[in-house]
Amino acid sequence: MKIAQIAPLAESCPPRFYGGTERIVSHLTEELVRQGHEVTLFASGDTRTSAELVRCSDIALRLNPAVRDHVPYHVAMLDRVRALADRFDVLHFHIDILHFPLIRDFADRTVTTLHGRLDLPDLKPFYAAFADIPLVSISDDQRRPMPPVNWVGTVHHGLPRDLLPFNDRPKGGYLAFLGRISPEKRPDLAIAIAARTGLPLKIAAKIDKVDEAYWSEQIAPMVAATPNVTYLGEIGDAEKAEFLGNAAALLFPIDWPEPFGLVMIEAMACGTPVIAMRRGSVPEVIEHGVSGFIVDDVDQAVAAVGRLGLIHRSAVRAAFERRFTVERMAEDYVEIYRTLPGVKARSPLLYVAGGEPGLQVVA
């Protein structure tokens, strides 16, 4: 198939640091190319890909200090997408809502994966107005707040099997918190769990500008007052294998309707069990007693730390390989592409890509 992937421009594909959506778009794109599809990726100019790249900004917008507003860059990107739309059998959007008014006349060969939370009140009238646009959720729980819309599937995220190596002999003996410092991620609960268990806690997380006050007023004082807690800052992919692989467990004490939680399957790929609050997608991702423990409060999380010896790291890795590989994710999406009515009417389903894929750039 001739497939367009349209990524957010906040981060490159893959991102240098934090960036779950762009990371998934990158993995999906590379796997689709590997499977023989002709893929064009609309993304930032510092993206690394074996697909054809349409550069829509010089670098990732978050890394450009001159950028104040991301919207104009995305609107310009969508103008290019629309100009090139007839080249593709399927256009797969990962940028939330900006493109909806522009794809009305070819929506039947598009799919939009919703990567964020959908419980915000302003979203309901929007999605009700565009109820025909084909949508994909990244967990079944993510759908709960939505009005009736055109869901065409749920596709859980997946990762390359060799991205994060399995570690059967972790050396750290610490608990890990990885992701973002924000009230909904509840790093304060991770600190409370560590304080009660006595195990070291290492926090590797970015701090967005909107959360700087939360960090300085609430979390930084807790870190300073808890001797067994260390804040490491934001880490990249190269450091994740050691950080997650050597942890006794990943703490995921969220307090919001998490749409998926990529860090959970990153930990699972390393064989590291996950202790997670029963929120959002968690019961869909974690198999209680197999890949970790699902808990309802801090007391249960502390008890779960004491039961980590019951979890076999090989079983955690096996759960990852059974459910969360990039091959499975790509196959799920291709099956959805094939069901889109515009794809069936427009062209044959499959194209055979000739030769070895290499980096191509459309200026």
UniProtKB/TrEMBL annotation:
InterPro entries, A to Z: Glyco_trans_1, Glyco_trans_4-like_N, Glycosyltransferase_grp1
Coiled-coil positions: none
GO molecular function annotation: glycosyltransferase activity
Keyword Transferase: yes
Signal peptide extent: none
Domain Glycosyl transferase family: 171-301
Xref: Pfam families: Glyco_transf_4 (PF13439), Glycos_transf_1 (PF00534)
Keywords from the UniProt entry: Plasmid, Transferase
Gene3D superfamilies per record: Glycogen Phosphorylase B
Glycosyltransferase subfamily 4-like N-terminal domain residues: 18-119
Cited PANTHER family: SULFOQUINOVOSYL TRANSFERASE SQD2, TRANSFERASE
Protein name: Glycosyl transferase
Species of the source: Chelatococcus daeguensis
